[in-house]
Design a protein that fits this description.
- This protein has about 375 residues and is of the alpha+beta class.
- Among the domains are: about 150 residues, Gyrase A, domain 2 (2-Layer Sandwich); about 80 residues, Alpha-Beta Plaits.
- The strands form 5 sheets. A 6-stranded mixed β-sheet has the order 12-13-14-11-3-15, sandwiched between helices. A 6-stranded antiparallel β-barrel has the order 16-19-18-17-20-21. A 5-stranded antiparallel β-sheet has the order 5-8-9-4-10, with helices on one face.
- The protein is globular.
Length: about 375
């Protein structure tokens, strides 16, 4: 939605970077975690090329943090996720799922361990703060659960390393993929991690003082000018190429981890205790009935990402739905993530998709569609 007809109100929060993003050309916003997020800096294909060729700076303050502290914080955080956290070190991040009692996915955040009993969950779009506080009430565990004044920016793309070296010095090159460190940039307190929702090499800068948001944004844009840094927004094209989930689209409360092919994030056979363990154990034993697949949609270039779920059919019977679809200018084809009945999940299978009343052929293909081994994001400097 553009600025001209966007009713900015007090019931929806503005990010600490809001004024800077408008100054740098944000013309469209949507709402995510009860906060405005910039979604439009012009041509989304140009934003994609900026991301993969140079670097972009994205306001993702909407990735709100749930902070869990207290003597029982580690035990509590393990209760929330089926991923075994026993080897999670202080200073490390892990991609985790949060599941409910029937094994449904409530969110897929990045978990940061700031201390022995100090954690952040960096959230996708969902009310996990309320879920965690509700779980805590009857858990018998001594924990404190709050939303801290923490707002991430994403600096993503191949030139992000050079920009970070200019900002923080050569030592930033030692920061490994999915690790973070506490840093101070001219009096601006930060946590900096080698993570990001882009499938490209990059960093997230977690601002720990919202009053300094525009100062931080401007400082990065100024330093990044010589490296062709552009203001941008999270790229649907690139994240779909990389097979990254968007919560509410590709997964929701009715989706279980096995349907998403995320078995590696679920430890039902170990001795850890977590919400949904018995349900997930049963789902694993019984076998799943649906599976997420990659698709190539064989029609004219899609004009943009889908805004509704498109039905998938075989012999005029609905067998699933397209959850995320977009045209990839690099791959020169329409690609999509879809959830289908498991008997229709085989690579090479042809099915039909209905888009606005018209049917088109599509083919089940391997995903992720680009850089399947994540060599770009995880490379060492």
């Amino acid at each position: 939605m553009s600025n001209k007809n966007f009713g900015f109100g007090t019931q929806i929060r503005k990010s600490p970077y809001f004024d800077s993003t408008v100054k740098w050309g944000a013309t469209g916003f949507s709402v995510y975690n009860h906060m405005y997020i910039p979604r439009d800096f012009g041509d989304p294909e140009q934003n994609f090329w900026n991301l993969i060729e140079t670097a972009i700076l994205c306001d993702v303050a909407v990735e709100r943090q749930v902070e869990i502290t207290g003597p029982d914080a580690f035990k509590f955080i393990q209760l929330l996720t089926p991923r075994d956290l026993s080897k999670l070190s202080v200073g490390q991040c892990k991609y985790v799922l949060i599941t409910n009692a029937v094994g449904g996915v409530l969110n897929d955040p990045v978990l940061l361990r700031l201390g022995e009993n100090h954690f952040w969950l960096s959230l996708g779009d969902s009310d996990i703060l309320l879920w965690a506080q509700g779980v805590a009430v009857n858990s018998g565990l001594d924990v404190k659960i709050t939303e801290p004044d923490v707002s991430p920016l994403q600096l993503q793309g191949p030139k992000s390393a050079e920009i970070m070296i200019k900002l923080f010095g050569e030592s930033i090159k030692d920061l490994k993929y999915y690790w973070f460190r506490e840093l101070d940039l001219d009096g601006i307190p930060l946590i900096v991690s080698r993570t990001g929702w882009s499938s490209e090499f990059g960093y997230e800068l977690f601002l720990r003082d919202g009053s300094k948001g525009n100062e931080l944004y401007e400082k990065i844009m100024s330093v990044g000018k010589e490296f062709e840094l552009k203001p941008g927004h999270t790229s649907s094209i690139r994240r779909i190429e990389g097979g990254m989930l968007s919560y509410h689209a590709d997964a929701d409360i009715h989706t279980n981890p096995f349907e998403l092919g995320l078995d590696r994030l679920v430890n039902v056979d170990g001795n850890i205790n977590f919400i949904g363990k018995e349900a997930l154990k049963k789902i694993k034993a019984d076998g799943i009935k649906r599976l997420q697949v990659g698709l190539e949609i064989k029609c004219e270039k899609l004009s943009g990402p889908n805004t509704t779920f498109w039905p998938l059919m075989v012999d005029n019977k609905i067998i699933g739905k397209v959850t995320s679809a977009v045209y990839s200018p690099r791959l020169k084809k329409n690609i999509a993530l879809a959830m289908v009945k498991i008997e229709y999940s085989k690579i090479g299978l042809e099915i039909e998709v209905s888009i606005e009343g018209k049917n088109f052929k599509c083919e089940v293909i391997e995903k992720p569609f680009f850089d399947p081994k994540k060599q770009i994001t995880s490379k060492s400097l």
